[in-house]
Amino acid sequence: MSHRIRLSLLALALVATPALAQTGEAASSGVKREVVGNRTSENIPAIPAELIERLNRYQNTRGAAVAGWTKDGCLLVSTRFAETAQAHRVCQPLGMREQLTFYPEPVAGLATAPARAARSGFVFSKDKGGDEFSQLYWFDDASREISLLTDGKRNQNNGALFSPDGARMAYSSTARNGTDTDIWVRDVASGTAKPVVTEGGSWSAQDFSPDGKQLLVVKYVSAAESYPGVVDLETGKLRMFPVDGGKAAFGGFEFAPDGRAVYFVSDEPLDGKAQEFQTLRYHDPATGKLEVLSRQIPWDVDGFTVADDGRHLAYVTNEDGISKLHVLALPSHKEVKLPELPVGVFGAGTFSPDGKRLALSINSATSPSDAYVIDLDSAKLVRWTRSEVGGLDASKFVSPSLVRYPTFDEVDGKKRTIPAFYYKPANVPAGKKLPVVINIHGGPEGQSFPTFSPNAQFMANELGVAMLVPNVRGSSGYGKTYLSLDNAEKREDSVKDIGALLDWIAQQPELDASRVGVVGGSYGGYMTLATLMHYSDRVRAGIDLVGISDFATFLTNTESYRRDLRRAEYGDERTPEMQKVFAEISPARHADRIRSRLFVAQGKNDPRVPYTEAEQIVKAVRANGQPVWYLLYDDEGHGFRKKGNSDWFGAASILFWQQNLLN
After folding, report:
1. Which CATH homologous superfamily contains domain 9-59+402-662?
2. 286-318 burial: b if 16+ Cβ within 10 Å, else e
3. pLDDT tens across 128-161, in order?
């Protein structure tokens, strides 16, 4: 299936009894540094007990995400009951969640063995401290034993995929040279594994043929460019498929039940005409037949899955940030009647081994992710998990509205508009102007969805702060052209979209344009810094989480297996042309223009955006006399996945807004 701040007693104890360690450098520069366990904080005041208490219930919400069906008809789900997300089993609607894994690090990439497999269990991945050098592990249902499947070294292993009979398992790995992501296949019985695709670049396994002898694969270059192929596992031969138009995006490949035809998602040209969106397609090489199954829907297909019994296919469209589920009968491709589903965001789901039920996770702005099951014969929807919302009254949660605001350029003679989700506090007194926080997604090819956010709910209900969540140019979900509008030298055009949003805020009678903050993570962290660089006179404060501060140093220091993928989006820092662009747009080079209050947070083990990106912007802004809050976790990577860490950062963020946006 194809995307908070919480509070723990541990975080409360840490706040109450900090261990102070002040280095000579920090003391001489007037920086107040505290080191508490794995947390280092600079210039962050003590968090008031009253704020911790107010946040407590919001930070104790949780969700459940469907991972697959077990052989005995239970659901494998990912959820968090302690510090991190772990694997759980649920065997009936609203039944007990039985925890199966118990690690201080979160587990991810859950993949259940097929019903035909000789052994029942599942595979999961786990890294150390957020370093993303994830290893694969096998959980055996019969013995409850866990065994390491990969070499345990400093490489990345992901995307476990079983053959229909469970005899083979494919996965992606950087084990060969640490840079290229190859495809490996493991013989489950013997435990031997070998690479089957070593062409260089970033590859992933998509689907085994019904007889297990062939493997569909895709080479990913960028959000707009992928190349599909098929590997004959007996001969080792890789055959690439022709790509209409020479270059296109692909969003998945699976064999049809007959093992000859394929289903896939692509934006390849149709009848010689370029396509804006990725559609679901069926192709039979023997007859040359190509059928576009989602032709009538002018939005991207986000994902699909074919039932093991070959009788149904489910796919999900992303329609202005809202998911729509479709199920087709095979081989007729006729739509199957479905029950009414909650408005929200979900993936293509996973069929039960007998093909009669479809499980999926549904997330909405007012409800965390939960597991639901559709009975296809009766068209009945049954909820299997009901996740906690900290004892809060969910009826008081705020649902965002979708707004579109004009930006600086035009399309067909009319102002281009940018979509944004608008969380507005309820029952606002007449004449009261609301402070507002702009929340910018990462990626940059990502997309913000109207999903459940305890942070947005706390801001609206407890602080009376509005939140705007824009999908600026370069976001996915709005067509191929929109996706490419911020590439390389056009990078700052997306920042101008935030400038246009500031103009829109100033025109709204209920919003206070003099009290605006901005927050973002990863690429959104760069957008936060760039917004402060260009609009410090209009933005009071910003929070940068694991953000890029200088594209040249970022591309030089990001892990080698990511470097070419990021160059395809941002540009190549080795060329004089892009060196000049990066010098102009990188916030660390223009820190003197950042006059707003700044909070920077980072994980020490981040392989994507190295912690040096955070430290150089903190140093540069402080050098101009501007105070900066700085938070560094030694046991985190690209974002904070441990509850205690996330809770403390969330509380510090709220305190930052209180002091720098509301006061």
Report:
1. Alpha/Beta hydrolase fold, catalytic domain (3.40.50.1820)
2. eeeeeeebbeebebbbbbbbbbbebbbbbbbbb
3. 998 889 999 999 999 999 999 999 999 999 999 9
